[in-house]
Amino acid sequence: MKYEVSIVELPAKQLVGICERMNMADAKEKCPAMWEALWLRREEVADVIESYAYGASANMEESGAFDYWATLPVSATANIPSGMKCLTLRAGKYAKCSTDLASIEMAYQFLYGEWRESEKEHSVDFTAACFERYANDWQENDTFELYVPLS
């Protein structure tokens, strides 16, 4: 499947939420549980600045293991709730496309595979976190945006 990809420039963003180490086989079970836990505790997160939530993947290994974050964007990280952590998304260029939950794995495979291999002007930054951006009223069948960092 092909996705329409645009290149966007984004500022750095501070996120606070729940993080867990997993692999793709675990993600379908673990991620929904993490989002439910975050939503039950969202009032504890101080200084939330947007009406979006961010799912970020970082520290990816060739084995397929990665850290997944279910987070909210904040203006300050002085009051991180117990059991939560802070992640900073770096400023810079990102490849962006829209997808839905049923196609998320295909969309990531497209961005990190076919699109990356055909892209002549930009290269993917494998050291930085990629992320999804969900509207706060997002429902399971709604679309959302994927962002892959570029160098």
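(ticket continues) Second input and output from the same batch:
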Amino acid sequence: MLSLLAGILLGVIGGFPLLAQADPNSGLPGVSALYAEFMRLDRNHSGYLSPAEFRACGGTAQAFREADANHDHRLNRDEFVVAASIDQRIKTGQYFADTWITAKIMARLLQDNFPGSLDVQVRTVNGVVHLSGRLESSTQIRRVLAVTSRVDGVEGVSSSLKLGRRRHELREN
């Protein structure tokens, strides 16, 4: 379990190159890179970012609102740095929550000695669990759906589980 969490943490840190770069002049990680990003996003060169310009870089509305210190519905350069930090905190939190949901579902299927647990692929995005794979019976499919829907944090379930021979049986033949 510790190696899984360590791998996730390294993946998350590696996924945020702007925040990981060091600025030798400021002593703060990534500030000059974020300033450069601000200039790139400020298409009309107004010195501010609109909500639409912030969304263009994948920013969330919540991060924009929280960083807009003077409530003028635009971000200056310094507010953008704060917004980028808040946005990464939000996204990292959701990533860990989704990963935790996936792990809990897989653990419950394995704990129950569910016959098709290794043939079910589980992916969670923003609390919505996506299930895929092949199982031997509709009873097994219903059981996977029931186990999944009872896990804390699951906001919805999308299933493309199909009836058919399981993968490991196909390899043996």
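Agent notes: Residues 77-111 form the longest helix (35 residues). Residues 1-29 have pLDDT under 50 and may be disordered. Closing as not reproducible unless the customer responds.
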